């Protein structure tokens, strides 16, 4: 199972690093699985180190499996290193692979025989669950490690495709008690700031079972030792110093410089490294140099069968050339019928040295061999060679096939790259090509949506529709309108979705019953439901089911069944709706409809949330999120929504650390999805006192129109931050901007989030009235407008037959309570103490459905109302409950408002000393303790004591309340 080549180059100066690597191997033998991230510059000795690790592992009774990542350019073959691992294992130990396939059949999708051009498909070859594939790889490695401990080496991960990086990350997180050591190598000098491997490396490194080993350039002593070991005959001291200086501690460069110098006059060594590397080819025969060029065009590694097909040499002469290259240590032959350059730098230098015409001819030879299936190869390989040989017709068909293959293994990002290249190549398609352009556009848009690039998909579909001739077939236009409606609905462009699906419905009205017609009717029902037209939605959902029955494909209208369940929930029967959604999810899973399955599972969780059953909501949303990942839909509609909704549910329940972990992005997270998730993390950060979230939300403004939930969720954390920074003007502007945007997106002033927005706006006014007492009348007038808007939304914003959920009811209660608090602080038409207590009591109870943070804040204000009514003991009880919650959450701003100590009965304002009255007056002007200390020429500690005494004597819990009470009761006159 070993494929790391033996090399005669001595290992110098790496004892510490080698010990660390072999330590992980030893631990794996004792059932403590672990991973090593081996990094270093190109040529520093990573492959040589891995050779030593493989040797050491063999001596310890380990099996060794090695897979390589290859630079395919813009788009490659997903899971390439794992295909190489299992493919080689199938060649060398077929009985082992047969056993693996019996227990983990998904591995069969990675075998080269399944992925080659012209491979036969079986009836079960649909899209593979991503999780099933990942679990199968982990299971296979675990099973192989039961017979002998195992070292798995993945080389050159800086070239890894997205899916391979994801799989490596999955394996790392599942390392437990297997007899398994995973070694991942990569070029550190290739990891520029935007390299896709940077963030995975950082995340993998946080795992306690992962250790990092970096190979630095050799120091002067070790470089000299290596040089001495490489020399077959002495060189002049000046030449040795020159080699050491130019090599800079890089082992490979040292070796190449020594080899070049040993060939003759040292002055012939050119200064440019590429030229230096190519000097190694100069003494070789013409055939050997030509074979080296052919191998370079293939990439770093080429199978013997493919090389034979394209080299253009008789077998005997090819063998002689290969032997010459091997003897010169230019290529390696690990014994598995393939060849590769000892170092990628050498391969790159040889390739770059080719004339343009030579490159084209060699790529054409590879493309012909792959296309004719003279030798086995993948569509991605064929596409690369055909493109570089200017055979664009072949490249087009190969790109399409590569895209389909990527989708089949849940790798939409790679599929999108291939499909987009195919669209660019479409004008070059062969005249007899069977690939329909409309189909290709829809597939490309679908892959974009699955990769969380909905705007990209929308633009593509709009452009395609605009370019359709007026006399284009009706069905062709409808086929473009259908995905446009679907994706527009996802990003809350409801009006465009309605226009698109309405047009598609008209275009298909005279068509005979078909699966597509059922899907159009189903989508029309879904859009109607989103627009608040339940009767129309129900009619077309039933119509979709009827069409599907007529064509014998009831599963084609699975989405319509989900819409009917949603309508039932909104009609007041959430229990029956939940049962329907569970059944719909099972049916969709059995029918192989991933979009319908993820949608139904997400809506099931949303249904539980709306009912106030947060525990069931969290369970359902976690399942939806996990299934979306398994199906390769983690960035698509409802998959990403499930993840965000899960994090919000965790936040509301007080599981803040879990919420932050759920939304933590990695390098594979698309930019739009990262923005979507980040706002939930902002809620946690703001709740713990991080005021930078306000600036963060502003930086995300470009994403607001793509995902309206982003500003809706991010508004409250940002406004809270502005209040703590005493920037009410910025808070009010943000409120106005988000309110205007929502009204535009939802095409109504009565969108349901406005209830919460109005309550948040009243909080800002309460903050202002304390600091701007002279503006009290104006602020109360503005408050009246906000409370009216919020209450009108509760009355007018719900479609007929629908009622507010528990969250809406809680925020409506909070709205009314904040309105009373504003009037109480302003002393303008204030509520009676009993009224104020009753209103805040209702608010505390309303948030009792599970929103622990908002309930704690409500308890704070409830305690102030109780204390003002003379119910000090009850007030202290509320403070204690809120304090317990704040401490559990780490909610620093809430703790600061609470003051951290229980209030006493208070002795009334008459007991304030002259100094305390002086402190109170400055406190009411918004001074901090530091400012107070400077103005009164006392220490901050003394100020703190005075403030504590004032709060206790006035019977209040915060500085804000103290200032308000002082003004209300005339203590500052």
Structural topology:
Elements: H1 15-29, E1 34-40, H2 46-59, E2 63-68, H3 80-92, H4 94-103, H5 112-115, H6 130-147, E3 150-155, H7 162-173, E4 180-187, H8 198-205, E5 210-215, H9 220-230, H10 237-247, H11 251-261, H12 273-278, H13 286-298, E6 301-303, H14 304-311, H15 315-327, E7 331-332, E8 338-341, H16 344-353, H17 356-371, H18 379-388, H19 392-408, H20 412-425, H21 437-450, H22 454-467, H23 474-490, H24 494-507, H25 515-530, H26 534-550, H27 558-570, H28 574-591, H29 594-611, H30 614-630, H31 639-653, H32 656-662, H33 671-687, H34 693-699, H35 709-724, H36 728-746, H37 753-771, H38 776-796, H39 806-826, H40 833-846, H41 852-868, H42 872-889, H43 892-898, H44 914-924, H45 929-936, H46 940-954, H47 959-968
Parallel strand pairs: 1-4, 1-5, 2-3, 3-4
Antiparallel strand pairs: 6-8, 7-8
Helix pairs in contact: 1-2, 3-4, 9-11, 10-11, 13-15, 13-16, 14-17, 17-18, 18-19, 19-20, 20-21, 21-22, 21-23, 22-23, 23-24, 23-25, 24-25, 25-26, 25-27, 26-27, 27-28, 27-29, 28-29, 29-30, 29-31, 30-31, 31-32, 31-33, 33-35, 34-35, 35-36, 35-37, 36-37, 37-38, 37-39, 38-39, 39-40, 40-41, 41-42, 42-43, ...
């Amino acid at each position: 199972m070993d494929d790391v080549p033996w090399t005669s180059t001595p290992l110098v100066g790496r004892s510490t690093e080698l010990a660390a690597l072999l330590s992980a191997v030893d631990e794996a033998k004792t059932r403590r699985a672990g991973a090593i991230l081996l990094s270093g510059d190109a040529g520093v000795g990573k492959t040589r180190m891995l050779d030593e690790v493989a040797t050491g592992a063999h001596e310890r009774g380990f099996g060794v499996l090695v897979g390589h990542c290859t630079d395919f350019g813009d788009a490659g073959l997903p899971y390439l290193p794992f295909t190489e691992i299992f493919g080689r294992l199938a060649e060398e130990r077929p009985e082992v692979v047969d056993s693996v396939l019996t227990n983990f059949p998904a591995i069969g999708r990675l075998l080269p025989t399944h992925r080659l051009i012209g491979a036969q498909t079986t009836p079960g070859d649909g899209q593979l669950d991503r999780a099933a594939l990942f679990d199968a790889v982990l299971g296979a490695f675990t099973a192989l490690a039961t017979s002998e401990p195992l070292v798995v080496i993945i080389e050159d991960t800086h070239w890894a495709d997205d899916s391979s990086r994801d799989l490596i990350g999955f394996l790392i997180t599942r390392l437990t008690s297997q007899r398994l050591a995973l070694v991942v190598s990569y070029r550190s000098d290739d990891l520029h700031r935007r390299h896709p491997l940077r963030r995975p490396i950082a995340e993998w490194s946080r795992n306690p079972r992962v250790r990092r080993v970096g190979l630095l350039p050799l120091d002067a002593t070790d470089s000299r030792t290596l040089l001495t070991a490489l020399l077959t005959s002495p060189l002049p001291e000046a030449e040795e110093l020159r080699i050491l200086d130019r090599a800079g501690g890089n082992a490979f460069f040292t070796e190449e410089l020594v080899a070049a110098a040993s060939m003759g006059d040292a002055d012939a060594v050119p200064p440019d490294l590429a030229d230096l590397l190519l000097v190694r080819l100069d003494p070789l025969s013409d055939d050997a140099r030509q074979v080296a060029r052919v191998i370079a065009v293939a990439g770093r590694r080429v199978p013997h069968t493919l090389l034979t097909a394209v080299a253009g040499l008789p077998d005997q002469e090819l063998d002689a050339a290969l032997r010459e290259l091997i003897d010169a240590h230019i290529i390696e032959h690990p014994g598995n019928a393939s060849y590769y350059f000892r170092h990628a730098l050498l391969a790159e230098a040889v390739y770059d040295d080719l004339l343009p015409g030579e490159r084209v001819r060699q790529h054409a030879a590879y493309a012909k061999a792959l296309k004719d299936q003279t030798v086995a190869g993948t569509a991605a390989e064929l596409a690369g060679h055909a493109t570089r040989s200017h055979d664009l017709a072949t490249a087009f068909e190969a790109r399409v096939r590569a895209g389909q293959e990527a989708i089949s293994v849940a790798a939409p990002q790679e599929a999108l790259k291939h499909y987009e290249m195919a669209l660019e190549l479409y004008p070059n398609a062969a005249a007899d090509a069977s690939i329909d352009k409309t189909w290709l556009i829809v597939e490309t848009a679908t892959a974009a949506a699955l990769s969380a690039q909905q705007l990209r998909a929308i633009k593509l579909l709009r452009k395609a529709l605009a370019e359709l001739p007026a006399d284009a077939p009706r069905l062709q236009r409808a086929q473009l309108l259908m995905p446009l409606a679907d994706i527009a609905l996802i990003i809350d462009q409801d009006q465009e979705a309605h226009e698109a699906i309405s047009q598609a419905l008209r275009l298909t009205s005279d068509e005979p019953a078909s699966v597509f017609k059922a899907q159009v009717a189903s989508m029309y029902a879904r859009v109607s439901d989103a627009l608040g037209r339940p009767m129309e939605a129900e009619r077309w959902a039933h119509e979709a089911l009827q069409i599907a029955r007529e064509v014998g494909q009831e599963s084609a209208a699975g989405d319509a069944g989900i819409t009917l369940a949603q309508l039932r929930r909104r009609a007041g029967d959430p229990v029956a709706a939940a049962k329907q959604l569970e059944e719909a999810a099972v049916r969709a899973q059995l029918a192989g409809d991933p979009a319908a399955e993820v949608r139904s599972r997400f809506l099931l969780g949303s249904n539980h949330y709306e009912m106030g059953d947060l525990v069931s909501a969290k369970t359902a949303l976690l399942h939806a999120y996990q299934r979306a990942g398994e199906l390769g839909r983690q960035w698509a509609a409802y998959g990403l929504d499930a993840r965000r909704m899960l994090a919000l549910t965790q936040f509301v329940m007080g599981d803040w650390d879990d919420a932050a972990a759920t939304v933590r992005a990695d390098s594979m997270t698309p930019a739009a999805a990262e923005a979507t998730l980040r706002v939930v993390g902002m809620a946690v950060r703001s709740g713990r006192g991080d005021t930078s979230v306000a600036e963060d939300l502003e930086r995300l403004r470009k994403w607001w129109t793509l995902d309206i939930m982003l500003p809706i969720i991010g508004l409250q954390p940002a406004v809270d931050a502005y209040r703590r920074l005493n920037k009410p003007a910025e808070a009010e502007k943000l409120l106005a901007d988000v309110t205007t945007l929502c009204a535009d997106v939802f095409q109504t002033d009565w969108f349901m989030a406005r209830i919460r927005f109005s309550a948040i706006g009243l909080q800002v006014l309460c903050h202002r009235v304390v600091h701007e007492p002279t503006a009290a009348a104006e602020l109360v007038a503005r408050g009246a407008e906000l409370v009216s808007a919020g209450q009108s939304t509760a009355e007018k914003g719900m479609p007929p037959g629908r009622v507010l959920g528990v969250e809406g009811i809680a925020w409506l209660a909070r709205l009314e309570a904040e309105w009373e608090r504003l009037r109480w602080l302003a002393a303008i038409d204030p509520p009676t103490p009993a009224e104020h207590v009753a209103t805040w009591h209702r608010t505390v109870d309303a948030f009792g459905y599970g929103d622990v943070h908002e309930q704690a804040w409500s308890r704070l204000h409830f305690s102030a109302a109780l204390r003002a009514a003379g119910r000090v003991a009850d007030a202290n009880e509320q403070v204690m409950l809120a304090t317990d919650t704040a401490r559990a959450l780490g909610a620093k701003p809430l703790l600061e408002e609470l003051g951290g100590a229980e209030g006493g009965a208070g002795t009334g304002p008459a007991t304030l000393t002259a100094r305390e009255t002086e402190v109170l007056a400055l406190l009411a002007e918004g001074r901090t303790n530091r400012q107070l200390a400077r103005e009164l020429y006392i220490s901050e500690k003394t100020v703190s004591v005075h403030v504590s005494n004032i709060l206790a004597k006035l019977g209040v819990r915060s500085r804000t309340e103290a200032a308000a009470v002082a003004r209300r009761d005339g203590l500052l006159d």
